[in-house]
# Entry
Amino acid sequence: MPTTTVRQSQWPQRITIVAAIGLLIVSWFFAYIWLMALTEGVLVPWDTTTIRPPHGNWQRTVNDFFEAGIGAYLPSLTFLVVNAALFTWGARRAKRIAWLATAFALTNVGAFVLLLPLSLALQSFVHATPPQLRPDDWRYLGDFARTWPLVVVGIAMVVALFAGQALMVRRMSADQR
# Structure
């Protein structure tokens, strides 16, 4: 008499994977919005002002690059491409894709939740206007000489996030061998 194997339903596993990847996509959306806001707030300080640095000044060039066109989207898109590449690299090696997607989503959200109070604390010092500047001076409203610490901290946190996620992928794939 032939034996038949009862195949378990894979629907719960598939639903879990879809839900986890959905959570990851939501985290990417919030990261995109958050990085767009940071780009606008930190790298484009003169977008709504009548006084700007003179043409040819490096600060005006940076402001104009990140104010419109590809420059406005570059930080967000760079984050998304690197994060998606890390996830894809991990998903190709991992057997527990739902766990990997959830871990990526939680680390993305965690990094940006940690960056929020840190950036607010730094901005209180960074955006303090030096007393010698007058309101008709373009440096009164913004100056990259004052905002560079926030840029460095943000980049360092994103690099740390990517390094942590790469390490997580390597450990997951090593555990499954």
About this structure: The chain has a mean pLDDT of 86. The chain has one domain: 12-175. Residues 12-175 form one domain. The chain is about 75% helix and 0% strand.
